[in-house]
Each structure stands twice: as C-alpha cells, then as structure tokens.
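Ticket closed. Logging final result for Large ribosomal subunit protein uL22.
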Amino acid sequence: MKLQKRETFSYKRCGEPKYVKAKASNLRVRFKTLVETANAISGMQVTRAQQYLKNVLGHKECVPFKKFSGGIGKCAQAKQFKTVSGRWPSKAVKSMNELLINATSNAYYSGIDPEDLFVCHIEVNPAPVSSRRTFRAHGKINPHVSHLSHIQIVLKLED
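Final structure:
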C-alpha cells in the first residue's frame, strides 16, 4: 500500500501563478472571533483589508458577528454590515494582519504586485485544545484550556 502525500490546503486550484497562499497553524486565538474576522475581510482587496484591520484595532470600524452572535453586545458601527452585533477582537485582528503581511511578501517573492490582489479564499479551522491544569484552594485541581486555531488564506490577482 502506497501512502499519498496529504494536501495541506483545502483550496485546490492554487498551482497557477496568479495565486498566492499563506497559512498559520496552532494560533492561540479563539476560533469564533477568527471566523468572524475572516468573514469580514473575505473578498476585499489586500490594501483595503489591511486598512480595515488597522481601523478595527483603533476602534474606528468593528468586526460584525453574524454567525456566532450569542452573547455579543450591540455596536452602532455594525450597522454598515446590516447587523447589530459587533466587537473589536484584537488578537484575531493582529494574527490576521500578520498572515496578510506574510501573503503579500509571498507575492513580492513570486513577482506579483500586491496592490492587484484580493482575498479569494479564507478558511479557519479549530485546532485540538491545549489542556493544562491549575491548582485551586482546598487541594482541588481545575483544567486550564487554551483554544487554538488554524488559518489558511489565498490571494488572487484581479481579472
């Protein structure tokens, strides 16, 4: 029996030279906030996505929470996305911005101008949780769980 090499990207049409890929594994960022941040920048141009993420860090724009909106407070800035729930998830925004910077540097290396790229595919997957233990009063021990995530992003040249 011959073992096949497992494809690490779910986006299969990435072999063409007009695509640029980047991925990050085992990030200590919550899955739900990363999914909503990815949905917010999906389809944007790279320069607009980076500006949007910078505005989110400065609380000038918010990340709309549409799918995982349970327990999320209302935000007036979410009206532009036709929803009321929104937040400013800094860890998710910083990790997504670093991934976009990595993808644009991959574009420079491939000879593609990053100004012409837009985000055509983003996938966020939950990673296995990292479990530790914390010691409590009266000899008790509680779990201390870290939630990890994987991200992969594909940038495409505008046609």
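The mean pLDDT is 86. No further action required.
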